[in-house]
Specification:
The complex is a heterodimer of chains A (about 775) and B (about 150).
Chain A lengths: L1 H17 L7 H22 L5 E8 L4 E7 L1 H24 L6 H20 L3 H19 L6 H32 L4 H6 L7 H17 L8 H4 L5 H10 L3 H9 L1 H4 L5 H22 L3 H20 L4 H32 L15 H14 L6 H16 L5 H29 L18 H15 L1 H4 L5 H12 L15 H19 L1 H11 L5 H24 L3 H23 L15 H23 L5 H19 L3 H24 L10 H25 L9 H11 L6 H9 L1 H22 L2 E3 L9
Antiparallel strand pairs in A: 1-2
Chain B lengths: L2 H19 L4 H21 L30 H31 L25 E3 L9 H6 L4
Helix pairs in contact in B: 1-2, 2-3
The chains are: A mainly alpha (about 775), B mainly alpha (about 150).
Chain lengths: ~775, ~150
């Protein structure tokens, strides 16, 4: 069923791509209905089960790589988020990218991304997990770079790819270490029998796996790629960068929680980095003016909170994480989509240029207010509940672990920033009368279509009513997810109200601090701006090392390749000749002067061979000497056909067939190109150059002569092909052609390499002939 | 065939191929590479010792172990497999070269497209210049291809 779901989603992507969705409205609804239908199917099939749903498909067992799917509470929680928000985003996208001719491609990548993301949350096999993980990396790269002629898009996409791709490789290394050590390749096996103790191997694996999670979820100091990726179209930002992809790191940590939670490094690393990220990103969010930039940093801060929660093992902390994941998806998604609608309607995303939109954009206003309640952590909405449980757990932990204080500070700074952001969104965009900066009056305001509002509105309503439904409809989901994270069955009931205690007072303090900071306005901002300039970021390191790599590559290629073609060829041939001269001494004993005699099995054979030889010689001379345009091309084909005949004579039918085919193809290709090119004679060379060239040619020729004599000497050892023929005779079922068996079996990897070369050549030809052109000397536009 | 005759043929192919490559002309470069590919395929083939054997295709299964005629009965299939790979790769390289010549013709606006002697990365180009691609599909085909090579316009 799960594999089928992935297939259905990928197929729907292909259908949407091929049917030109920009021309029809039905595409939007199709895109929304498919994920919901899949969700309904999975829900019906799994909720009835008492046990965890399993699915197993053998893929590459010799690499320990199987498609083992496992759908426990945690996976189901993410499945609901991925498919539910996916449906809303698919509906929304159609109106956001209205009339974009590449909408189909966007849908295709979106659905492929959805499938990869589901693969992540379902995979039990760690290697399959990695495959899907990188699947999201690549599809998100394509989604971010959608507006692909814009430099900012390209740069954002590139940085995201490098950071998350690199982190993914670190994670793979961690998986391999742990897999080698334990002999198990599934999460469930690791969780059932946690790697005992804190030996070096486990610690190294843990650090590498966490590196993968931190890069994917943009934790400090990798927090720069996510805001950079905001150049993506808004639906992609809303989907990838709030609800799903950045949560993959959270998911990884939650999934491996039972295996690692007792490790001494787990708690300090997760709580420490989470708290720092939360504080730094919260402050950065307040200093931004771009709506999406603010939301991006707020997302990072929220992810930091979730890491703080998952670093602990108490039930309260895990409830905080699960409720936090759910609430965040329900409020950040609509906020992102609203930012897109505001931009669509007013032509700007700069909060300084927005004011008084409450009446014209009243639908968006409702969505933003409903979501901001949860963002600001007002009692009793989702954000508040999550923070309440988290603070409670941290206060208990503070007796035993100093890092909990760091966590508390981080959470409070984050909470302050969230309150500030919520007020800023509602007040500055919608309520205040006058904007800070001049407004572009040329853009005609148009409210979003009802269908565009439908998706985010549905999410906002679910988020708004969450306090009512959390302990009824969502209770089994939350309980199962908490149980899956903790590794043992838990009974969970979320309380909306914990009473007037220290925790509640801390929440109020954060809320008050946020409100106060907002009332102080620019004075706060000036202080903050001065502070954030000092925050270190991996950004400059990445840019610097990329620049260094490019400079180094250019230095090397100038140093090694800034030669003329003649010098290049002389060096290559010289090296080849040198090798032969060096080994000729050892191989010399192979040579037998009697080979030089002209022997033939029969007069007919001699006659045939002589003809072939003579024809080839004449044709080669024609290729060499003719200044005509067509003659040398035909002569080259004559050489090729003679070589083909030679293969026929010496019992090599596969070679003859291939050579014939290639000869025809090359001939056609050259003629086709030649037809388009004007005639041009080669330059006249000075006499010195001519003599030098003839010299090089003669040396090469003699080199070939010696090589043939040496190679054809009597063999001193049994050829290895004898064993190949024998094995084929005995073991190959159904195969008769030994050459084929060698290509596909004995030397299969050679053939794989050959296919790779052909694929690269094909891509090269395609890009040369068709689409792209390097644009030299253009500075990237400033970001 | 005598080894001597084959060696002579290889000598001529290699020599003329090399000379053609050095002629500083795109089309002659392609022709020269074609000759050299043939020469090297023949060199590899000569490693079989040029003894005639049966085509290395066995009778269809079921084959009985006691009917095994011995490996010497067949022509050595290993060089065949290697040359097969070489032919296909040679074709890939040739196709790429042909596309490159066509591209040079386009970029250089039909002039001096055949000049391949000095072919080095631009010395003054910033490394970043090579990292950004431009979509030409959206532009009219005639948008002054020559201008791109010099960077004079836009």
């Amino acid at each position: 069923m799960l594999l089928g779901s992935l297939a259905i989603l990928s197929l729907s992507g292909l259908i949407l791509w091929r049917t030109k969705p920009e021309t029809t409205r039905q595409a939007a609804w199709f895109g929304a209905v498919v994920p919901l239908a899949v969700l309904g199917w999975i829900w019906r099939r799994t909720v009835m089960l008492d046990a965890t749903y399993h699915e197993h498909w053998t893929w590459l067992p010799s690499f320990n790589l199987d498609l083992t799917f496992r759908l426990d509470g945690l996976s189901l929680l993410f499945t609901v988020i991925i498919l539910g928000i996916g449906a809303a985003v698919a509906l929304y996208t159609h109106y956001y990218l209205e009339g974009d001719p590449r909408l189909g491609a966007f849908y295709l990548f979106l659905f492929l991304f959805m499938a990869s993301m589901l693969g992540i949350v379902w995979s039990d096999n760690v290697l399959a997990f990695f495959v899907f993980w990188e699947g999201t990396t690549f599809t998100s790269y394509l989604l971010i770079g959608h507006g692909f002629s814009a430099t900012a898009s390209q740069r954002g996409a590139r940085n995201a790819l490098i950071v998350t791709g690199g982190g993914g490789l670190a994670m793979l290394a961690g998986f391999l270490l742990l897999g080698q050590a334990t002999g198990d390749w599934t999460f469930s096996a690791w969780n059932a029998a946690p790697p005992a103790g804190a030996d070096d191997m486990t610690t190294a694996a843990l650090v590498l796996i966490l590196l993968g999670a931190f890069t994917k979820s943009g934790q400090f100091p990798f927090h720069f790629w996510l805001p950079g990726a905001m150049a993506a179209p808004t639906p992609a930002s809303a989907y990838l960068h709030s609800a799903t992809m950045v949560k993959a790191g959270i998911f990884l940590v939650a999934r491996t929680h039972p295996a690692f939670a007792d490790h001494p490094a787990w708690l300090p690393v997760l709580v420490g980095f989470g708290a720092v990220t939360c504080a730094v990103s919260g402050v950065l969010a307040m200093t931004k003016t771009d709506l999406k930039g603010m939301l991006a940093y707020a997302t990072l801060a929220q992810l930091g909170l979730l890491f703080v929660a998952l670093g602990q093992s108490g039930k309260a902390a895990l409830v905080a994480a699960v409720v936090g994941i759910l609430a965040h998806a329900l409020y950040k998604g609509p906020l992102f989509l609203s930012a897109g609608m505001i931009e669509h309607a007013t032509g700007t995303r700069d909060i300084r240029r927005l004011a008084g939109q409450a009446r014209p954009l009243w639908t968006v206003f409702i969505i933003v207010v409903a979501s901001a309640l949860s963002l600001a952590a007002l009692p009793v909405w989702g954000g508040f509940l999550s923070k309440e449980y988290l603070l409670d757990s941290l206060l208990h932990l503070a007796d035993t672990a100093w890092v909990a204080w760091l966590g508390l500070i981080g959470v409070l700074i984050g909470g302050t920033a969230f309150a500030w952001l919520a007020i800023a969104f509602v007040h500055r965009i919608f309520l205040r009368r006058e904007p800070d900066a001049a407004v572009d009056r040329t853009h005609r305001l148009h409210p979003p279509a009802a269908t565009m509002v439908a998706g985010p509105m549905a999410l906002a309503v679910i988020g708004f009513t969450l306090p009512l439904t959390l302990d009824r409809w969502f209770q089994p989901l939350v309980q199962d997810a908490v149980s899956a994270i903790s590794g043992e069955v838990q009974s969970v009931h979320v309380h909306l109200w914990g009473g007037f205690n220290a925790v509640f007072l801390l929440s109020l303090a954060a809320l008050a601090a946020g409100t106060g900071a907002y009332l102080l306005g620019f004075r706060t901002l000036r202080v903050l701006h001065r502070g954030v300039d000092w925050v270190p970021s991996g950004d400059w390191l990445l840019e610097r090392s990329l620049g260094l790599a490019a400079r180094g590559a250019s230095w090397i290629s100038h140093g090694l390749q800034d030669l003329s073609l003649t010098s290049h060829i002389s060096i290559v041939l010289g090296a080849a000749v040198l090798v032969v001269v060096l080994v000729a001494n050892r191989l010399g004993s192979l040579f037998n002067p009697s080979d030089l005699r002209i022997v033939a099995e029969s007069p007919v054979a001699l006659w045939l061979e002589g003809t072939i030889l003579l024809l080839s010689l004449m044709a080669a001379l024609t290729v060499l000497a003719s200044n005509n345009r067509l003659a040398p091309i035909i002569a080259l084909s004559v050489v090729g056909l003679n070589v083909t005949l030679f293969f026929v004579l010496f019992a090599a039918p596969d070679l003859a067939l291939t050579q014939l085919l290639v000869e025809v193809l090359v001939f056609v290709l050259i003629i086709l190109i030649l037809y388009k090119l004007p005639a041009a004679q080669p330059p006249r060379l000075p006499l010195g150059h001519k003599i030098r060239n003839i010299g090089i040619a003669c040396v090469t020729g003699v080199f070939g002569f010696v090589l043939v004599l040496l190679a054809s000497g009597r063999p001193r050892f049994e050829p290895i092909s004898g064993e190949m023929i024998r094995a084929t005779w005995l073991d190959a079922h159904g195969a008769a052609n030994v050459v084929n068996v060698i290509l596909t079996d004995f030397r299969g990897f050679d053939t794989f390499g050959e296919m790779t070369v052909i694929a690269i050549a094909g891509i090269g030809v395609y890009s040369l002939v068709r689409a792209y052109r390097f644009r030299p000397r253009r500075r990237p536009a400033s970001e | 065939m005598s080894v001597l005759l084959l060696a002579l043929l290889v000598t001529l192919l290699l020599g003329s191929g090399t000379y053609l490559i050095l002629r500083q002309h795109a089309m002659k470069l392609i022709l020269g590479l074609g000759l050299i590919s043939h020469a090297f395929n023949l060199i590899i083939f000569s490693a079989t010792g040029l003894t005639a054997g049966t085509v290395p295709i066995l009778p269809l299964p079921p084959r009985k172990a006691d009917e095994w005629p011995g490996a010497g009965h067949f022509a050595d299939p290993l060089p065949h497999a290697l040359i097969l790979t070489a032919i296909v790769i040679g074709f890939g390289v040739t196709a790429y070269l042909i596309a490159l010549v066509q591209r040079l013709h386009e970029v250089r606006d039909g002039t001096a497209y055949h000049e391949v002697e000095h072919f080095s990365p631009g010395r003054s180009g910033e490394p970043d210049d090579y990292m950004y691609l431009e979509d030409t599909l959206s532009e009219p085909r005639s948008a002054a291809p020559g201008a791109d090579a010099t960077g004079a316009t836009r």
